[in-house]
Write a structure and sequence with these properties.
This protein is of the alpha+beta class. It contains 5 helices and 16 strands. It has a 3-stranded antiparallel beta sheet, covered by helices on one side. Strands 13-14-15 form a 3-stranded antiparallel beta sheet. Strands 1-2 form a two-stranded antiparallel ribbon. A hairpin with a 2-residue loop joins strand 3 and strand 4. The chain binds zinc ion (5 copies). One zinc ion binds next to loops.
Length: 265
């Protein structure tokens, strides 16, 4: 060790002292591989970035195998979103492994992801099909909201919207879903929300009040049932992002709410 190094004045060349060889934990050279410094050879705790692709680091390009997560959906990795084809094991329109399927709407060519939860098959995305009667809206009339959240329908439109083989769920079907997922508001919320293990993938599409104001995008999800309650109110199924709970509530039939159709048994 030189005299200079003894008194603490190393001649740093990046991470390494050119005089004594001491390593400092800064400025490692990791452009070729995030996990090891090509200048000093130190193994670095995992600094790779696998968020865009579980099998290829977006910083250094290093590749690894068998890191995707296909358990939730055989054709879409739940960690990075990568898609692949022809991996489902289909039976009666539902994959026997991941419980997903697809509904193809012939009226406008839209494909909807479906999911089987318990003994019920339902849409795993909000409906965006034009109704033949009643009223419908896109949240704040923004096209991007249609793509993500589908349409908000009044009850008249919601009741008439289902194509052959599908229907607007009854209150009892929402109750049955709720019971299957544990029967407790917070737990049911966690299962149904986007990323939850049920595969329902609820987003918070908000609602439209009868007088025309849009409300609570990102804060709550509202789904029609076909069941009328007392005082001309209608049963809806609601998820609240801040209260973190899910359950049945009532809505005015003139409100604009989201629609998830259930498959006829
Ligand atoms: Zn030194
Ligand atoms: Zn280094
Ligand atoms: Zn890397
Ligand atoms: Zn992945
Ligand atoms: Zn599958």
């Amino acid at each position: 060790m030189s005299f200079k190094c003894k008194i603490g004045l190393h001649s740093w060349d990046g991470c390494k002292c050119a005089e004594c060889g001491k390593i400092r934990d800064a400025e490692h050279e990791t452009s070729k591989d995030c996990g090891i410094c090509s200048r000093c050879g130190r193994i670095l705790e995992d600094r790779h970035d696998w968020s865009a692709d579980c099998e290829k680091c977006s910083k250094c390009g290093k590749t690894v195998e068998n890191q995707h997560s296909w358990a939730k959906d055989c054709e879409k990795c739940s960690k990075c979103g990568k898609v692949r084809e022809n991996k489902h094991l289909m039976n009666e329109g539902i994959c026997q492994v991941c419980r997903h399927g697809t509904f193809y709407d012939e009226s406008d060519g839209t494909k909807y992801k479906t999911i089987k939860i318990g003994d019920q098959v339902m849409m795993a995305e909000n409906l965006a099909r034009r109704p033949t009667k009643g009223n419908y809206w896109v949240y704040e009339n923004k096209e991007s909201n249609k793509v993500q959240y589908g349409f908000l329908y009044d009850w008249e439109a919601a009741r008439a919207i289902a194509p052959k083989g599908w229907h607007l769920p009854a209150k009892a079907e929402w109750e049955s879903l709720y019971a299957f997922l544990g029967g407790e508001g917070k737990q049911v919320f966690e299962e149904l929300r986007s990323g939850g293990s049920s595969g329902f993938e609820s987003l918070f599409g908000g609602e439209r009040f009868a007088r025309g104001a849009f409300n609570s995008l990102g804060a709550s999800a509202h789904y029609w049932s076909d069941t009328q309650e007392e005082n001309k109110q209608v049963c809806q199924f609601k998820l609240g992002a801040y209260t973190e709970t899910a359950g049945l509530e009532k809505a005015d039939p003139d409100f604009g709410l989201s629609v998830r159709l259930f498959r006829n048994k």
